[in-house]
């Protein structure tokens, strides 16, 4: 699922990436996504490959170089060594153009460690535009066949490497990973996980505005399935911007982590998801805007949603809300790069059974 562009967004497609043109730095303009993707492969999540995750998962060093071509530059250079003929460029689909733009940006603007990840990704996708994954058993109601499988788009993962606007399919993969990981741990010193997940692709701002009944149905069905859980995480996309909701229906409380909330002076009324939640679980909800890390540019929101989601599930959930976010500084690109490398290490391992270290 690809998100449409909206007004009032923190994300501006026209200033998405820097490009060197005619002796100066300019920007690559990205077009809105409209077409559907074709899928061919079916990958089953391998539960045996989910490993213990600690603080190092989010911030620690990982060796992500390739086995022979350390930075992947040789093969990436080959991708761009020959100019594209004008006739060929004119027949490329919008998706193909975005993929080429993302690859160009990775090659010219991203560090060597990220370039090597892009080359590994290209080999695994093997020319396919997406791969099919089976959703974890028990994550969603079994009566909903639409939840049985999901797709992770090649372009969506490339954007994660290229500092782009993140795709819902990749953020949903992060939700599935966390669900599997915490299920494999079963219980720690503080007990079982207290977290369940609303599918980010079912609760977008567009869905809330145009198909509220369907959104509410999803909220109710997931809540019924996981009544034993205290918190429900809802990555929410609206107006070209990603936000994380933490919802406690039993306590009628919700927390909103928005990486532009301070500059934009936002409150609950800025998000149509609050209406969907209140009309589903009761209007007497108390909402709190969390003092979370902010973004300095126009593209970091999705990365901060992933960071906050992992941080909550792996570290904060058992002492929440006693331990809550209190860091409103701007995230750095170095912090995002470290997050990207750590997440991609797990993505390769779980989706492709790729444990390459060198």
TrEMBL record:
Show the Gene3D superfamilies listed in the entry.
Answer: Adenoviral Proteinase, Chain A
Q: Which domain of life is it from?
A: Eukaryota
Q: Which GO terms describe its molecular function?
A: cysteine-type peptidase activity
Q: Which UniProt keywords apply?
A: Hydrolase, Protease
Q: Which GO terms describe its biological process?
A: proteolysis
Ubiquitin-like protease family profile domain ranges (all copies):
173-339
What PANTHER family does this protein map onto?
OS10G0338966 PROTEIN-RELATED, ULP1 PROTEASE FAMILY CATALYTIC DOMAIN, PAPAIN-LIKE CYSTEINE PEPTIDASE SUPERFAMILY
Similarity remark = Belongs to the peptidase C48 family.
What is the protein's given name?
Ulp1 protease family catalytic domain, papain-like cysteine peptidase superfamily
């Amino acid at each position: 699922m690809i998100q449409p562009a909206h007004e009032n967004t923190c994300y501006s497609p026209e200033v998405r990436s820097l490009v060197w043109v005619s002796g100066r730095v300019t920007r690559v303009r990205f077009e809105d996504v409209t077409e559907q993707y074709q899928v061919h492969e079916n990958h089953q999540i391998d539960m045996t490959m989910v490993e213990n995750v600690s603080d190092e998962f989010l911030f620690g060093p990982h060796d992500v170089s390739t086995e022979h071509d350390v930075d992947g530059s040789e093969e990436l250079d080959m991708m761009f060594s020959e100019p594209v003929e004008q006739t060929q460029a004119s027949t490329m689909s919008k998706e193909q153009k975005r993929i080429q733009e993302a690859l160009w940006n990775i090659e010219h603007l991203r560090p060597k460690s990220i370039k090597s990840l892009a080359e590994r990704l290209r080999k695994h996708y093997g020319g396919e535009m997406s791969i099919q994954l089976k959703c974890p058993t028990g994550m969603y109601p079994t009566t909903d066949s639409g939840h049985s499988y999901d797709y992770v788009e090649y372009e969506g993962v490339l954007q994660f490497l290229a500092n782009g606007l993140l795709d819902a399919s990749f953020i949903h993969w992060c939700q599935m990973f966390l669900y599997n990981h915490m299920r494999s741990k079963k219980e720690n010193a503080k007990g079982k996980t207290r977290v369940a997940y609303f599918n980010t692709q079912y609760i977008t701002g567009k869905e809330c505005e145009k198909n509220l009944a369907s959104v509410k149905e999803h909220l109710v069905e997931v809540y019924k399935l996981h009544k034993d859980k205290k918190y429900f995480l809802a990555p929410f996309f609206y107006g070209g911007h990603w936000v994380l909701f933490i919802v406690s229906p039993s306590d009628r409380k919700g927390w909103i982590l928005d990486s532009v909330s301070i500059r934009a002076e936002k409150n609950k009324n800025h998000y149509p998801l609050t209406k969907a939640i209140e009309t589903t679980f009761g209007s007497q909800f108390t909402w709190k805007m969390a003092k979370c890390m902010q973004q300095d540019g126009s593209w970091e929101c999705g990365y901060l949603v992933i960071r906050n989601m992992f941080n909550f599930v792996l570290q904060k959930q058992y002492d929440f809300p006693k331990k809550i976010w209190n860091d409103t500084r701007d995230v750095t690109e170095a912090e995002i790069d470290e997050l990207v490398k750590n997440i991609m290490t797990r993505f390769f391992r779980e989706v492709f059974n790729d444990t390459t270290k060198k």
